[in-house]
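Q: Here's a chain of 157 amino acids. Please give me its 3D structure as tokens.
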Amino acid sequence: MAGLSHIDQKGNPSMVDVGDKKSTDRIAIAQAIVKVTPEIMTLLSGDEILTKKGPVFQTAIIAGIQAAKKTSDLIPLCHPLALTKVDIEISTSDDNQIIIKCLAKVSGQTGVEMEALTGASVAALTIYDMCKAMSHNIEILSVMLLQKTGGKSNFNR
């Protein structure tokens, strides 16, 4: 099982011991893209879609921040982190796509990629939930890591 950090020598799941790692500033940015119908996009007023359930993007931002903070409760081998920042930005494109970017930041011994990915994912799911009464023809097209800095390696898509 060489190379798999979450597997012990017997092949069992194991939480990585990060106790000896140097604490560094770490940032990760993830993106999710949600494709909605043109009818849903007609409800876009300024920077928000208003529905009977309430403001879609504001609700998705709060849900994404909450999810990023709860990542270790959702992903079994993630370490609980004292996040220093979670920021979610939502924008739209001309082709009925909603673009969610989630930045997660920590000063610690392990990265925040999973927190950024979880925040973006839950924000996308929240948009689906808030808009599904208008149409179930909504797709979450992708969720991906865009960037990570800090630790032993950096990544930039």
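Q: Can you summarize the key feature?
A: The chain has a mean pLDDT of 91.
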